[in-house]
Task: structure prediction
Amino acid sequence: MRMTQRIEAWWKRLERARAIVAAGGVVPDGPGRFLVTDVTKNGNQPQTHTVFRGQCDCTDCRLRPWLLGYCKHRLAVELYLAQQHEQANEPVGAKEGK
Result:
């Protein structure tokens, strides 16, 4: 697979991961463990996958080793953690514009 194809594939997964986070689809479930509900499936029943210590149990990770483990579920966890970190380090009153 060419590098440009890989980048396109990662970009699509990143966009889906953003939608998952925006919909509240990432839920901590213990140390290093997250339940990620895929709300991006059109017309299909949402599925929940487990991301544990950076490893996802989804088919995408198993069948596409060139992703290096970065499926939309793992990317969603990374985005969620970054969001949580930003919120925890936000100065008091910053949300109110003070």
Notes: Strands lie at 26-28, 33-38, 47-52, 55-56. The chain has one domain: 3-88.
